[in-house]
Request: fold
Amino acid sequence: QSALTQPASVSGSPGQSITISCTGTSSDVGSYNYVSWYQQHAGKAPKLLIYDVTNRPSGVSNRFSGSKSGNTASLAISGLQAEDEADYYCSSFTSSSTLEVIFGGGTKLTVL
Amino acid sequence: QLQLQESGPGLVEPSETLVLTCTVSGASISSNNYYWGWIRQPPGKGLEWIGSIDFSGSTYYNPSLKSRVTIYVDTSKNQFSLNLSSVTAADTAVFYCARLPGGINGVCPLCSYYYYGMDVWGQGTTVTVS
Reply:
């Protein structure tokens, strides 16, 4: 069970848009639409941003959006704000015949 | 408002068994629309799913930890717990409990699982193995 692959870091200026990729395999991201994204500020618990590839929980800004193509999922953040500076993690199902979840290694977003 | 709170020792000796408990308040742990899970994060590293349990006590474990992990639920106390045996320094981490909305479609073995992410998290508890 290998972790999903994310870039270690991305950066952008306030107001800009950025995208974070999450690459898996045909056994996880490529097979299931159960990809989630989490935001984690330093010293805090993760917060669910996106579930089922594209869905936002109530209360999450529409500046955050998710997509998937093949074995790669992506998180897009538009209109970057200083408070978006955080670590971002993707996760995916690895099997629908049981409950098994893997995370990506995480991406540090720096708002310049 | 749903809240999850982890509790347990902050320090565990090598080779011992780590025991953590997550107390759920504001909702019943017996709902059949949710799983409950444990996730850990070593210092400076990423998140790792440890395992999950549903209201009936069915468990699901990370294959890499399965031999050392037991998760169980106490519906009378609205709690679920994690046992991690034979700990080493590599198990030092912040441990989180979380709720996973989801369920099962169909009848097993011809069933498929689904979930909607981990939507509520505890604040986390730091465990050091030393």
Remarks:
- DSSP finds no helices and nine strands in chain A.
